[in-house]
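Teaching assistant's notes for section 4

Start the section by putting this record on the projector. Ask students to predict, before seeing the second block, whether Protein involved in gliding motility GldC will look compact or extended. Collect guesses on the board.
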Amino acid sequence: MEEIVSKQSAITVKIGLNANNLPLEMHWSADDGGIKDSPAKAVMLSLWNPEDNNTMKIDLWTKDMSVEEMKQFFHQTLLTMADTFEKATGENLIAEDLRDYCYHFAEKMDIMPEK
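Reveal the predicted structure now:
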């Protein structure tokens, strides 16, 4: 039996661009999360297209995002991807491998948290 959509929710990202279409500012909102026009400096959006069996993606960051912030953003995103992959697939061993890589990434990028 097919499930019926009983509700819709919106997540929006507004990008303020300069004359050369470079992102200067970003704000995002999430109806169900109670978030309205929250500032952001970067977004990575991946969507699975079942017709093409392929990922569509958008990667944007503001011109004032520092390299150090980008390193942290990537590190935290990779860690989150490991958690999401494990939750979605139950593949805990490969998720741990990815977390190990994240530790290596943080070490190489010199962003290891202070102990």
